[in-house]
Design goal:
This protein is α+β, with helices and mostly antiparallel strands. The protein is 14% helix and 29% strand. The chain has one domain (8-202). The chain is built from 3 helices and 16 strands. The protein has a 5-stranded mixed sheet with strand order 3-4-5-6-9, covered by helices on one side. Strands 12-15-16 form a 3-stranded antiparallel sheet, with no helix packed on it. β15 and β16 form a beta hairpin. The longest helix has 25 residues, at 81-105. The two termini are 17 Å apart.
């Protein structure tokens, strides 16, 4: 698929023992990377006995709009949701520090935080980011991206900071800015002073993208059609048996369009 549809990807090896990493796939016709790096969640007091996935930071031009993207796969709920919650709150803290560092240097920066958070939109870890989460509405309507024992969760999400303009209301009128998620407290201290230090100018662009909507993409091709897991996402493996599917999670999708343009960008 990567070759056929001309996708490229940005990836760093993490120290996760299972070799599970995060990556950003993109089409060069729509996205041009400018700088990228990974951030570890390990420090003197966190993840000292085992490693988890890094956070991938990428800055680039998305259809002529400068964006900062943070790709996440937060620690699992192994040991129970409550027992493991602090690990995901720490991941959120690291993610928030990176975002604060970006916004301190460029208050108009447009930031996208995405990934498998192993938490739902209403959990403390996601709220800690203080960002607009369009998937909260979907979650409140009972929608999910993955299922376990017939219980659906919406772990896969894409969040936006307040600098993203929203599509105009159906009644008409001008496009509105995203909800105010700012807070008066100063940004937390940098971890090892390793946050992005040089930013490409030009947050304001004549082709600025406007947020339109978010969906969970649940097609028949991605769904089990029969058997024990009928209606679940069609995974690649069932234990040690190859199942020929794509993932045990449905994709989270966010849709933009350029100002004064009808064509949508997913």
């Amino acid at each position: 698929m990567i070759k056929k549809y001309n996708y490229q990807f940005i990836h760093f090896d993490s120290k996760d023992s299972r070799g599970i990493d995060v990556a950003l796939m993109y089409q060069p016709a729509h996205f041009k990377p400018y700088q990228y790096r990974s951030y570890s969640l390990t420090d003197a007091t966190h993840f000292t006995t085992y490693a988890t996935r890094d956070i991938l930071y990428v800055q680039g031009e998305l259809d002529k709009t400068w964006v900062h993207i943070l790709v996440n796969h937060w620690p699992s709920r192994r040991g129970g949701e409550n027992a493991s919650a602090e690990k995901r709150i720490w991941a959120a803290t690291v993610c928030k520090r990176i975002m604060d560092s970006i916004e301190n240097r460029d208050p108009k920066a447009k930031i996208i935080i995405m990934g498998d958070f192993n938490d739902n939109p209403n959990n403390k870890s996601l709220k800690h980011l203080k960002m607009y989460n369009p998937f909260l509405k979907l979650f409140n309507r009972g929608m999910g991206s993955m299922a376990y024992r017939d219980s659906w969760s919406l772990f896969d999400q894409i969040l936006l900071n307040a600098n993203w303009p929203m599509e105009q209301e159906k009644q008409g009128g001008r496009s509105k800015k995203g909800p105010d998620t700012s807070h008066p407290q100063p940004a937390l201290a940098n971890i090892n002073n390793q946050y992005p230090t040089h930013m490409q100018p030009g947050s304001e662009a004549p082709f600025d993208l406007i947020y339109c909507k978010s969906i969970i993409y649940r097609s028949a091709t991605l769904t089990e059609q029969d058997g024990k897991y009928q209606g679940y996402p069609k995974r690649t493996w069932n234990g040690d048996q190859f199942n020929g599917g794509y993932s045990d999670h449905y994709p989270a999708v966010i849709i933009f369009k350029a100002k004064n343009a009808e064509k949508l960008l997913k």
